Amino acid sequence: MSESVRFRFNVDGSNFTTAGQASVQVKKNLRELGIPAEAIRRVSIAMYEGEINMVIHAHGGEAEVIVFEDRIEIILSDHGPGIPNIELAMKEGYSTAPDNIRSLGFGAGMGLPNMKRYTDDMKIDTELGKGTTITMTVKF
Amino acid sequence: MTVKELAEREGFTPVCLPDPERVIEGGYCGDLLSWVMGRAKSSQAWITIMSNMNIAAVATLCDVAVIVLSENVSPDDGVKETAEARGINIIKTPMATFEAAALISSLI
Ligand SMILES: Nc1ncnc2c1ncn2[C@@H]1O[C@H](COP(=O)(O)OP(=O)(O)OP(=O)(O)O)[C@@H](O)[C@H]1O
Ligand SMILES: [Mg+2]
Q1: Which CATH class is domain A5-139?
Q2: DSSP codes of every residue in B13-78
Q3: Tell me: the pLDDT tens digits for A83-96?
C-alpha cells in the first residue's frame, strides 16, 4: 500500500452560515498537495453537498478525506435520522428541506445527484434513527 | 474581459474585488445552490439574487470568477469580509438577472 494523507473535520450541525468550511479547507489542502484541478473540483463539490446535507438533515457529523496515489476517498458520517428511502432521496428534485433552509438557496433536491455525478463511486450506508455514512471515491 | 473591467462598466458597482484581474469566461444564472454547484463552471460570472454567507462557499468551490448580485441585492453581513479573505470577487447591479446576463454575454 502506498502512503496516504488524511484530513479529518468535525462538521458543526448548528450553524448554517459557516456550513461548508471543511470542504473549503479540503480544497485548499488538495491544492497544496498538487492534486489535478479537475479532481479537486469534483472532490470539493461532492464533499460540500454531503457536508451541507449533514448540517441540514442530520445535526452535523464527521468528515474524513483520504488522499491515495491515484484516488481520493471522502467519508461523511452522521448520527442523524437516517434516510428512509435511498432511491427516492437520490431523485433529482426530491427534498425534505424545511422552508427556512430553502430560503437560503438549499432544498433543490440536487445534492445527492450531484455527489453521484461528480464521483466515480458512491456508497450510502444508512440506518433509521442511527445515522448515515456516505463514502465517495474520486479517481485521478 | 476581466472582473475589474466589468466592475467599471456603468450599472455595476464593486462590493469587493480581491482578485480583479480574473478573466470572465461565460456565465451561469441561478439561485438554487445545488444547481449552481452542479452546473456553474470555473471562471464564469455567477449571477444570483442569493445574498447569504453560503454564496461564498459555493463561489470558492465552483471557482467562479465573480459573483454578480442582481436586482440591487446587497450581500448579508459578513459576506463581504469572507469573500475578501477568500479571494472571491463580488459585484452588484440594479439590473434584473436577465439584463445583467445579456449585457455580460455581449461584453465577453
Ligand atoms: N445525511 C442525511 N441524513 C438524513 N437525510 C438525508 C441526508 N442527506 C440527504 N438526506 C435526505 O435526502 C434528501 C435529498 O438530499 P439532496 O441533497 O439531494 O437534496 P436537499 O439537501 O434536500 O437539497 P439540495 O441539496 O439541493 O440543497 C434530503 O432532502 C433529505 O431528506
Ligand atoms: Mg443537499
Answers
A1: alpha beta
A2: EEEE-SSTTPBP--EEE-SSHHHHHHH--TT-EEEES--STHHHHHHHHHT-SEEEE-TT--PPTT
A3: 999 999 999 999 99
Domain locations along chain A: 5-139
The pLDDT assigned to A40 comes to: 96
Give A45-90 pLDDT, tens digit per residue: 999 999 999 999 999 999 999 999 999 999 999 999 999 999 999 9
- Residue B8 sits in which domain range? 3-107
CB contact under 8 Å between A110 and B32, yes or no, is: yes
Provide the pLDDT for residue A1.
52
Q: From the CB of A101, is ligand 1 less than 6 Å away?
A: no
CA distance, residue B83 to nearest chain A CA (Å):
12
Annotate A59-76 with b (16+ C-beta within 10 A) or e (fewer).
bbbbbebebeeebbbbbb
pLDDT of residue A18: 82
Pocket test for ligand 1, best of A54, A75, A91, A112 (most atoms within 8 A of CB): A112
AA letter at B24? I
Can you give the CATH number for the domain in which B55 is found?
Answer: 3.40.1390.20
Instruction: Please state the pTM of the whole predicted model.
Output: 0.94
Q: Which residues of B touch A27 (CB under 8 A)?
A: 60-61
Extended strands (E) in A1-140: 5-12, 60-67, 71-78, 121-127, 131-139
